[in-house]
Protein: POC1 centriolar protein homolog isoform X2
Organism: Drosophila pseudoobscura pseudoobscura
Amino acid sequence: MMLTASDDKSVKIWRVAKRQFLSSFSQQTNWVRAAKFSPNGKMIATVSDDKSLRIYDVNTGECTRTITEERGAPRQVAWHPWGNMVAVALGCNRIKIIDVGGSQLLQLYVVHSAPVNDVAFHPSGNFLLSGSDDCTIRVLDLLEGRPIYTLTGHTAAVNAVGFSQDGEKFATGGNDRQLLVWQSNLHTYDASQFEAKSALLSSSCDTSVASVYQQSNASSTALSNDHSIRIDMRESHAYKILDGNFQVLDSEHTKLP
């Protein structure tokens, strides 16, 4: 299944294989910035410009938790691998770790000097990545409750961060049109730069076009405000069209049948 979040204030679930719309969640009152399935697929976390974090039950469609932020609107959300908590990136330069069962604030980090755009948990659940408008990436040790690294390399806002499935590497993407891949050995970090060449596939975000990909551990993705998604195509595979509102492109930017 695929989850989409939209400026029409809704979150929708789609069955990709059958090109089928399944359900919609529309309790948000403003643009929905992000929506994520929980690790077991039974819950959805959404963040919206109405300053809310909402937790939905996938089977019933019920909103089981609503948490409203008093400061900046949340920009992104990530599930802990255990599925019992989420990390929220806030536009007021803060990061919150929240227990989804009791809506309790577990940890609060003020480690950036500008809005936080994305967060990602390490597969172990012990570390958190964050990317910010201050052009930096922070690595947080959640067991000790403190930042352990500040990484520089981007020359503009960092919009997306994500670990590989084995946790050995992570990728970051920014407004500087760079995708940086880092070795996450927690001792030294080495970055190699990927530029937009023919081996990368991009799809438009502001023209009602969405693409769905199946990725191996070897491939990485990054988002940028240049309205594109870039994917290392060495072992990536694109799915087919969902319906008339979705297009899927191959590595030559040709629409798939």
In short: Residues 187-253 have pLDDT under 50 and may be disordered. The chain has three domains: 1-68, 73-187, 196-257. DSSP finds no helices and 24 strands in the chain. Residues 73-187 form a domain with the Methylamine Dehydrogenase; Chain H fold (CATH 2.130.10.10).
